[in-house]
Write a structure and sequence with these properties.
Layout lengths: L1 E7 L3 H14 L4 E7 L6 H5 L6 E4 L7 H12 L4 E6 L2 E2 L4 H9 L5 E7 L16 H10 L5 E4 L6 E4 L1 H7 L9 H14 L3 E9 L1 E2 L9 H11 L10 H4 L11 E5 L5 H9 L4 E6 L2 H7 L4 E4 L14 E7 L8 H9 L2 E12 L4 H8 L21 H10 L2 E10 L4 H13 L5 H5 E10 L1
């Protein structure tokens, strides 16, 4: 038996579509609960006419997701497996059965998520599927059943194992948003050694507003609780793709600034025999990452890696070098920990991107919470400065991949103008948002 809880917060039409998708494609016995805090106009009248769902009005007024979920679980005495759904998430054929199969594939799995038309936490459906109808047809035929472990699950549709929830406890009453409450609960599952799995054959379509972010109050509450300003639950696919080895290779990988370990975990998914190590300055983030790898709490700039005598095939700097006071020295120090044929993999933001140049030409250089002008960046790089740094640190740059974003017409015209001013610059230097580098010790 499974209980499905949907907390309606925004659009009645999205709620109706979600409920109808269950009527069409539900393949097992469920109890459907619709939670209402008074945010959605007309929901109460419509819900009371539906014979196949339980309607719960939270009479304490507009409460947050964490508190609301706890109130409903307690009121209805829900102990079984719990599928938490966001309005606007639509079911596909066979979805719930496959989700349940995955949840009980191993004893220590605490929760399961699927894939959808969004790329948050890299849980996206195949790129050739562009509509809900196409996804229904693909799901009915059967999708590739790839099931892998994750650090975070997309909050819009997660199946939690009842026994794991009993062990972990209630949601955090202080977290108002679904995105924040689920992220917090995912970390608590990891800390309790309950695995989170993403299943490629479990498919949802989201007709809602797209990516989710945490409100200011939730961010502050999470930072007080976990000591982290944000959680990077998505692995760095561009860097991991530069590991060119056979799946069964027994490689040794060290990630500098491994955060909570999302990239290390994905490396283990792709290379199950990999020996994984991490270096992280934030002790609480390192605690999470230690469930996936051997992680040291240290500051790389103090040249104090505790892995004496170990040699690594790959050392990873994922958006780290720009945060260091002396990135060249850190690279030179890590060179001594590389195997003779070992490589450094690094992702580096490009200060010369046209969006930054556009600001500079207006007389601005405004720091932000994230992005190219992240307020925590200490060093800034252009293509040429990046190459010089690797060369001085004792590396030969083998491969550079560029990440780009669509440019506005104004930015294209501005790039043309800047290129006309100095022929030594090349167009890619303005178009590149981030450089992905593989460098071999020379």
């Amino acid at each position: 038996m499974m209980t499905v809880i949907m907390f309606a917060k925004k659009e009645l039409d999205n709620v109706k579509m979600s409920v109808e998708s269950f009527r069409l494609f539900c393949d097992m016995d469920i109890s459907f609960v619709l939670m209402d805090d008074g945010s959605v106009e007309g929901l109460q009248e419509w819900a009371k006419e539906q014979a196949d769902l339980t309607y719960v009005f939270l009479d304490e007024g507009q409460v947050g997701y964490g508190k609301g979920m706890n109130l409903v679980r307690k009121e209805l005495q829900i102990k079984e497996d719990l599928l938490l759904m966001e309005e606007g998430f639509l079911l596909t054929p066979g979805c719930l059965g496959r989700m349940t199969d995955a949840l009980y594939e191993e004893g220590e799995i605490g929760a399961v998520g699927g894939v959808l038309n969004d790329d948050l936490y890299c849980q996206n459906i195949p790129s050739h599927i562009s509509s809900y109808q196409q996804l229904i047809e693909a799901a009915a035929k059967g999708m590739t059943a790839d099931r892998k472990e994750a650090m975070m699950l997309y909050s819009g549709a997660v199946l939690w194992k009842g026994s794991a929830m009993d062990a972990v406890g209630a949601f955090d009453d202080n977290l108002r948003g679904m995105f924040s409450a689920v992220n917090d609960y995912c970390l608590r599952m990891v800390m309790a050694d309950q695995k989170l799995k993403v299943c490629s054959d479990v498919c949802f379509w989201n007709v809602g507003e797209g990516k989710r972010t945490a409100c200011k109050e939730d961010l502050e509450a999470l930072e007080r609780k976990w000591g982290m300003h944000y959680f990077n639950g998505c692995y760095n696919n561009a860097l991991i793709s530069l590991i060119e080895e056979e799946r069964e290779a027994e490689i040794s990988v060290l990630e500098i600034g491994c955060d909570c370990g999302a990239s290390l975990l994905e490396i283990r998914n792709r290379f199950p025999n990999a020996r994984l190590y991490g270096s992280e300055i934030n002790a609480k983030a390192a605690q999470v990452a230690s469930h996936f790898a051997q992680v040291a709490v240290n500051n790389i700039e103090e040249k104090n890696l505790p892995f004496s005598g170990k040699k690594f095939d790959y050392i990873i700097f994922g958006d780290v070098l720009e945060h260091l006071h002396n990135p060249l020295e850190a690279l030179a120090y890590c060179r001594e920990f590389l195997d003779r044929e070992g490589c450094v993999l690094a992702s580096i933001p490009n200060l010369m991107h046209i969006s930054v140049m556009e600001e500079i030409l207006r007389g601005d250089f405004t720091y932000r919470e994230s992005g190219l002008l992240d307020k925590t960046h200490i060093h800034f790089f252009t293509y040429n400065e990046m190459l010089r740094m690797f060369l001085k640190a004792g590396y030969e740059t083998e491969k550079i991949v560029v990440n780009t974003y669509p440019m506005s017409e104004r930015q294209k015209q501005l790039t043309d103008g800047l290129l006309a001013l100095d022929a030594r610059a090349e167009r890619f230097m303005y178009e590149t948002f981030q450089y992905i580098v593989r460098a071999k010790r020379n």
